[in-house]
Amino acid sequence: MGGKKDKDQAAFGKPVKYDPSFRGPIKNRGCTDVICCILFLLFIVGYIVVGIVAWMYGDPQQVLYPRNSTGAYCGIGENKDKPHLLYFNIFSCILATNIITVAENGLQCPTPQQVFKSLKQELCPSFLLPSTPALGRCFPWSNVTPPELPGITGNISQGISGLIDSLNARDISVKIFEDFAQSWYWILVALGVALVLSLLFILLLRLVAGPLVLVLILGVLGVLAYGIYYCWEEYRVLQDKGASISQLGFTTNLSAYQSVQETWLAALIVLAVLEGILLLMLIFLRQRIRIAIALLTEASKAVGQMMSTMFYPLITFVLLLICIAYWAVTALYLATSGQPQYVFWAPNASLPSCEQVPMNTSCDPMVQPVNSSCPGLMCVFQGYLSTGLVQRSLFNLQIYGVLGLFWTLNWVLALGQCVLAGAFASFYWAFHKPRDIPTFPLSSAFIRTLRYHAGSLAFGALILTLVQIARVILEYIDHKLRGVQNPIARCIMCCFKCCLWCLEKFIKFLNRNAYIMIAIYGKNFCVSAKNAFTLLMRNIVRVVVLDKVTDLLLFFGKLLVVGGVGILSFFFFSGRIQGLGKGFENPHLNYYWLPIMTSILGAYVIASGFFSVFSMCVDTLFLCFLEDLERNDGSLDRPYYMSKALLKILGKKNEAPQGNQKRKT
């Protein structure tokens, strides 16, 4: 067995050799993946150029403000006191096949449109109806009967009612704003509670990690055992009077399978298998579970020694927000680029007197149409020209922007992972803790990462970006082909999507560990990824156990924080818990669920940020632990850096006490 194990390990590289000069993250290092760094910088410059071009040619007012038939904006400029757009015949919009166009042309309607109360060029609607504003446009009340369309008033009334209900959210928006104004400080209190709970949970793991993991595992075993019992009871009841699967056959009514005895038998077998696997893992992998618990305890100590790392996600959040905001603004400006185009239009273009008028041809809105024999002839706004270099390249520029969004987001996330890995690695490789821990480990890791490894981060982020772009394209194709009923095509598409999802997960896992090796040794991305992968494969069982134990613990932590904040918010904002007295009363709310959901969402974001730091700490310490096992042997010249608890679990020891030992170089 020992020979087979050595052969399996040899397939994934040789163990790390002892290096007497190694004392944690390498300080004398050089720049890595320089070509990728240059390409990334050039891409960023191009991304900035795209933003400048979009800013020069785009006009987001096209989206924010409605335009009348002459192309003038409502609510700004000379029409500042005329914010609402009036349709001469709103029922032409209702009867049109395309009422709302979600595109750069905004809400278009085949009828003249003017700024409300404007009588320019003596053009007036043939009738006026009581109306209400919605999205800057005047829509009639739902009980209005149009004078010229008496036969279809019911459908039009329903259409107008639905249009107003879907667009006019003014009252709801005001109420929501009032609720936030009344409860914002209590929401901040709830978020503060979430922050404290998250921090306490991580810091207290050094004391309760072992018992907590044991309770969670026993809880999972208990849930599975109850599931087995419940399935058996249902199966026993249905054994005599229930229908069989052969009698029921195939049906899309899934609730019908609850009365089938084979359903409960299959569920019982699955739960029993899971229960058996978990029990076997507890029996045969108990040593590795103890190692995982010890690493979690050590990670809690590391976070306690470097509290600044807990707030680094704020920097990541700000950088991500900047990337998303820049892309959104650039995409908006690009989508609204182009010169306005005006064409001739008449409500009765089929009349003989209008046959000589070249309808849908370009015109000048400031010039009155010369052919007055065509009733209602107007020069109306149609859209925006797609001619010109920028307009012809609009699709390519948008693709460039999407690629820039994914690449910059992944680079920012990679930066955070590498910086945290460098800080936590300096904790593990400090022989005398806390004396040998650098004074500013987080800032040192941040500067070191930006100075030497921006190219390596860009390389890993680009690989992940290409896979994510491929997934987006595949999702788009799947959406377009959703109406296709070919089962083979659907199966192939599902397989492709599954493969790309698995590939993305694997690349994220590989990148994460590659960044840890980059932070420690300062080598390029490919070498670091290879070394991390081979090191993990030589210890694959430990990897799986630690990963699952950590996931279980962090899931419980998130459940505790989010659930606790959600329950407290519900009892307080619903009035079941009274305030603290004068000046701290319960807020009077229109929708008490709104601050509750806001508090829950904020608590989840805070807990995810804190626990992502802790998870990165666990992964970093784990790789350092594996390197420590291969690099050192506990002698005076090659002492272990791991904690005494890990040494005790492994049955190893240093020849001299770690606290008083002086390491030779």
Automatic annotation (TrEMBL):
The chain crosses the membrane at residues 34-57, 184-205, 212-232, 264-285, 311-335, 411-431, 452-474, 552-573, 593-626. GO terms for cellular component: apical plasma membrane. It comes from the Eukaryota. One of its GO terms (biological process) is phosphatidylcholine biosynthetic process. Pfam families: Choline_transpo. It is found in: Apical cell membrane; Cell membrane; Membrane. The keyword Transport applies. It catalyses: thiamine diphosphate(out) = thiamine diphosphate(in); choline(out) + n H(+)(in) = choline(in) + n H(+)(out). It is a multi-pass membrane protein. InterPro entries: Choline_transptr-like. The keyword Cell membrane applies. One of its GO terms (molecular function) is antiporter activity. Keywords: Antiport, Cell membrane, Glycoprotein, Membrane, Transmembrane, Transmembrane helix, Transport. Belongs to the CTL (choline transporter-like) family. Choline transporter that plays a role in the choline-acetylcholine system and is required to the efferent innervation of hair cells in the olivocochlear bundle for the maintenance of physiological function of outer hair cells and the protection of hair cells from acoustic injury. Also described as a thiamine pyrophosphate transporter in colon, may mediate the absorption of microbiota-generated thiamine pyrophosphate and contribute to host thiamine (vitamin B1) homeostasis. This is Choline transporter-like protein.
